[in-house]
Amino acid sequence: MPARARSAGNRQPNTFGTGSIEDVAFQTHDGSIVLLVLNSASSAETFTVCYKGQSFNYTLPAGAVATFSWK
């Protein structure tokens, strides 16, 4: 998740429990944190994003990609 990112261009891949949700997080040169999430399942999947002690749930449609960023 985003908290794992350390340096510019440092990618941190992860797969959530079901294996159908895949993500990569990184920190950009300007210090922003970017999280990309892919749902490779044939149905919508809900997952939780956690960063700096806060979290939210997000439902990603089948085959969709989402981008989250923090500055």
Automatic annotation (TrEMBL):
<dbReference type="InterPro" id="IPR033452">
    <property type="entry name" value="GH30_C"/>
</dbReference>
<dbReference type="Pfam" id="PF17189">
    <property type="entry name" value="Glyco_hydro_30C"/>
</dbReference>
<dbReference type="InterPro" id="IPR013780">
    <property type="entry name" value="Glyco_hydro_b"/>
</dbReference>
<protein>
    <recommendedName>
        <fullName>Glycosyl hydrolase family 30 beta sandwich domain-containing protein</fullName>
    </recommendedName>
</protein>
<feature type="domain" description="Glycosyl hydrolase family 30 beta sandwich">
    <location>
        <begin position="19"/>
        <end position="68"/>
    </location>
</feature>
